[in-house]
Amino acid sequence: MLFGIFFLLGLPAILVTVECMGYLAAGKPCLPVWLRRLTEIGALIILPLMYGNFGVENNCCGDELSTAVFAPDHQLSILVIIAIALSSYYYSVFRKTIFSPLLEVFVSVGLWLGILLNGFIAYHTNFIGYALGGNYPIIVLGLLMFYKNHQLFLQTYQAPDQLSGWQAWAWKLLQQPVWIKIPALLVLAIPLLSLLVSLLLLFGQKPDSFIRAFTDTYKHGFSQLDYECLNVSCGGHFLCSVAAMGTPALVKPTRKGWRHGNPIQCNRQLLIANAFEDWLMEKFPTTHHLLRTQYNRVGKLIHAYYGVFERTWVSNLVYVFMKPLEYFFLICLYLFDRFPERRIAMQYLETSHQQLLRQLIHHYDSPATRNLPPPSHPTHG
After folding, report:
1. Residue 274: which domain range?
2. Helix 101-124 and helix 75-94: axis angle, to 10°?
3. Which of 174, 189, 215 represents a domain boundary (last residue)?
4. Could you tell me the mean pLDDT of each successive run of 10 residues in the chain, 381 residues long?
C-alpha cells in the first residue's frame, strides 16, 4: 500500500518525463490530450496544495513535514506568484492564437516566475520527495510551455509593420534566441515583483514578504528562525525549560542539551529537576507516573500561552518561583542517590553519549570488570 501511495504521488512526475522525452525525440507531445490535462491538474494544482502546507503554522515540534513551508504571515505573497504562474500557463494552454507581443512577454515572465519559485522551494524543503514529486514536474511543464510559446510565436507572428513603442520592443525581444531571451525575461521579472510588492502592501504584506515567506520558518533550507526552537519542549512546555530562557546572569545557563532530538539551553535548575525525575522514575515508577500526569497538564497550559513565557521578565519570575523546589530536589538527590552529581551531569545529553557513559559507569562500578580495559567505542573525528 505504501508503494502505491508513493507511486500515485510520483505519477505526475513520471508522465511529465514521458511528455518531455516525446518533445526531445519528435518535437511534439506524445501523451493523449485528456491524460496531459489530468497530469497538469495533478502537478500544478493538487500536489502544490498537498506539499505547500498552506494554513499550517510554524511548529518547533516534529519534522520539516509538519511545519509551515512558507511563513504564515507571508503566504499571500507566495500564493499571488503561484496564481500569476498558473494564469500564464493555462492562458498558453487554451488560447487559440497569438496575441500582442507585450502580452506574450508578460506571459513568459509569469512562466519563469513559477519556474524560479519552484527551484527555490526544491532547495527550501530539504526533502528529495518534494523536489521529485512536486517541483520537478512543475519546472518541466513550465519549460515545455515556454518552448512551445517561443516556437509558436516565431512561426505565426508577422513582421511588425504597424507596431511601435512598447509593442515593437516586445516583438524584438520575443524574436531573440533563447539564450538572450531568458536572461532578459528574468530581468523584467524584477519590476513586475516590485509592482506586486506595492499592491500587496494594501493587504498587510511587507516589502520583503517574498523573502520572509522562506526565511521566517523552521527547519527548512532558507529558515532563519530555528533559534526560536532551542528551548521548546515538544509534547509539553515545562517550567524549568521556560526559566532557562530568562536573563543569563540570573538563570546561569551552563550548556546545550538535547530533548526529543531538539536542542535546548540547560541551566543548573533544569538539570537538577530532570535528575530528580529520573531518580523518581527509577525508584518509584508508580508515584512518578501520577506526578508526571499532573505535570503534563501544566505543560499543556503553558503551551497554550507560550508567547507569554517568551518574555524575559516572566521567565525570571518562574526561575525564582522554582528555586525552593530546586533545593528540595537537590536535597533528595544528595540524601537518597548514591551519585547525585553523576545523575545531574547525564541529563539532556545526546542518546549515544548517555549510552556510552552508562557502559563506562557499569564497567568501573562492577567488581567483575573493574580491572579490565574499558569497552571499546567509536571515536568521532
Report:
1. 230-349
2. 130
3. 215
4. 50 86 80 88 83 77 75 92 94 84 90 93 79 85 90 74 73 82 89 91 90 90 83 54 74 81 81 89 82 64 57 81 90 90 86 70 57 50 35
Residue 26 counted as domain residue = yes
Residue 374 lies in a domain: no
Query: Cell 494544482 belongs to which residue?
Result: 45
Write out the three cell numbers for 276. 530528580
Q: Which of helix, strand or coil describes residue 264? A: strand
In a domain, residue 355? The reply is no
Residues 4, 264: Cα–Cα separation, whole Å: 39
Residue 8 grid cell: 500515485
Cα dihedral sign, 141-146-152-155: negative
Measure Cα distances from 201 to 15, 58, 70, 214, 215 in Å. 39, 23, 18, 18, 19
